[in-house]
Give the backbone structure.
Amino acid sequence: MVKQERGRKKVKKSLDDIIEEALRNAPKIEGYTIKQLAEITGTPWPTTRWHLELLEARGAIEHFEVGRAKLYSLRKKSKK
């Protein structure tokens, strides 16, 4: 669609274009769930969870909640 505005042509984006653009710029959340880490390490998930809690208490890792799941990743170091 083309829309005239004060003598200039302004292109009106479709909703599909707006959504695609938003998703291209969406933040990337990287990490693993407890289940995924338990499968990678070959340990039961309660053991994996225990160690994740220890690492998080030490400040080595952090988690992000996505719905009911937690995604664990290495803590990003702040630049000073």
Remarks:
- The radius of gyration is 21 Å.
- The mean pLDDT is 84.
